[in-house]
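Forwarding the complex inputs:
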Amino acid sequence: MAIPKVMGTEIEYGITVKNDRDFDPISSCVLLVNAYREERAARILWDYDQENPLADARGFQVDGEKYTPNQQENIARNKTLENGARYYVDHAHPEYSCPEVTNPRDLVIHEKAGERIVEISRREACALLPEGMQMLIHKNNSDHKGNSYGSHENYLMDRRTSFKQIVEHMMPFFVSRQVYAGAGKVGSENRAPRCDYQLSQRADFFETEVALDTMVKRPIINTRDEPHADREKYRRLHVIVGDANMSEYTIWLRQGTTALVLSMIEDGAVSRDLSLRDPVRAIKEVSHDPGLQQTVELQNGKRLTAVQLQAEYLDLAQRYAAGRQLEPWYGETLTEWATTLAALERDPMELADRIDWVIKKVMIERFMERKGVDWESAQVQMMDLQYHDIRPDKGLYHLLERQGQVRRIVTDAETIRAISEPPEDTRAYFRGHCLKRYGDQVFGVNWDSISFGVGDEPIKRVLMAEPLKGSKAHVAELLQRSKDAAELVRNLRA
Amino acid sequence: MSESQQKQKTGGGEGGESNTSGEGAKKLAKKGEALKEEMDSLMDEIDEVLEENAEEFVKNYVQRGGQ
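Prediction (whole assembly, two chains):
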């Protein structure tokens, strides 16, 4: 039986300051993240003791220096928020890791709440800049000059499922998923062949099939083995191949289909061999053909389009779901996945209100027609960037949303609430509410632990190795009757 | 297409109008006009919000590689 697909995303945002000749991304990130005023987050450490980004899922430990900042730097770069998220500086980008959720709809709510949090801090940071300067943030993955940054998805997996199985069955899925999960990009980069427009922001950057790296020679499947949970029972699939999506529907469908296929792998239900002869080549070929006619070669010599490959997974998924008791979101995902693939077969432009790469393409083509400009024009390239601008009054995705031209999945009220409230059905509830209630006594936090400094006593670390424990149902009463952290720790021991 | 055909059928059935196809065509034309207006208003708004110095902005937009 597949385990619940606890999930979350980590989004690295693009950052720039207009009219700043000496623009330094790192200090701008620190300014941004610290401009977000959630009082208690101001002096809580991120607990690096629990981190091990150099463990490889194929079973070995990679040599390298683990990053551990000093205390002051740690606090300046890391904020743990009351909604259970982590908001921090990663290399030269601001990054928002949403709290753990249990379904695609909650994921949309929390990823979108993250955009709002970054926007709130952007406005605060702008007020601190010299006159004439303005900080801009883009939820995208590339500067169109060969530099890319990631939007990663994480899915909880059963440790008993072999990593080899995951690689075998997810590779063709990830290569083809971009037909509905791509965020769209004008032009190509990183030595990829020239094109006007492609499905994915990221496809040009994948150079190998499977590896631990995320920064150079990026792999389609990342092997980082850092479950942030009981490592005897779980793994966390760290997906680096995706784009930063703006459309709620696209985010929702991307999460749902991926989680569904992962559940199928755990239950041994991917019974067809869809292995590709050359996935690295295929991912670019698919991305570079918005007409969706390009076929890719399978190991068995057959050739399929990306939409046909996805249809194979959909067919397997429909068989898998028949006669099984599954969470309601599985059924909703199946319905929308089928609708989307059918539309992609007929005419992708039917999805101009819901799939990012189509929304962006249709908008740009209408603009080009009206202005008599082509794909090379600076205005068109600007539109590609500004689609991802997180400012509600200037971002082009936001403009379409305001005009009611894109399909919504969640309400504004839900995302606004998620700025300060954690999900109720995962350990993020415990993390968030510990910050709310005992913030002054919280010393450090990581995904699977929280430690308290109570008076002169040694630091007490509470481990949270089960992502589904620490939910409201588990701990609301415990938190209620623990008036401070010392009492909480006592009650936990009792 | 199918939507307008359906509307025509319903129109004919309900009111027994003699000139249903003419009505349908008018409706379609109206819908087309509304769509065009919507698109015009979108393009006007894009004109308003699009970064003025697009060329310079695009040129200067350089990010460090991330994950």
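Chain B has one domain: 2-12+19-60.
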